[in-house]
Specification:
about 50% helix; two-stranded antiparallel sheet; elongated; alpha+beta; three-stranded antiparallel sheet
Length: about 130
């Protein structure tokens, strides 16, 4: 990672912006793909830190209580039930439904980045979201 210093003074944000603008169309696509993956991985790292520090435990317990009390909504044909607030916010978007279908068909598909994190199973939905199950 580039840190602030005299040695790296030529790599300021304005210089980076200029360099990106100078990229060829194919290099621009490659850079965009790399940067999207870079950001997604940074988000994944933060998610794992949050799980490790117990920041999602109360939400998980609340979701499990909703399921126990029948206050959840089945996600279209999956046979699984999700807290309705979570379903509305995350699981009803087109992307997440497609990811859910892919998860049902091929849970190990590399684009899902399925992994066990603490007590959760986590799957990537886009670059900044993960769907969780317990």
């Amino acid at each position: 990672m580039i840190k602030d210093s005299e040695e790296n003074a030529g790599f300021g944000i304005e210089r980076i912006k200029e360099a990106v603008l100078e990229l060829s169309p194919s290099d621009s696509v490659s850079f965009r793909d790399w940067f999207n993956e870079f950001e997604a991985n940074a988000w994944d790292d933060q998610f794992e830190l949050d799980v490790g520090e117990g920041r999602l435990d109360a939400l998980a317990d609340e979701a499990l209580e909703d399921v126990r009390l029948g206050r959840s909504t089945e996600l279209s044909g999956s046979g699984r039930r999700l807290d309705s607030g979570v379903a509305i916010k995350y699981c009803l978007s087109r992307c997440s439904v497609q990811c859910h279908e892919l998860l049902r068909q091929d849970p190990r598909h590399p684009s899902l980045k399925l992994k066990k994190v603490g007590r959760f199973w986590s799957v990537r939905i886009g670059f900044r979201y993960r769907a969780l199950t317990l």
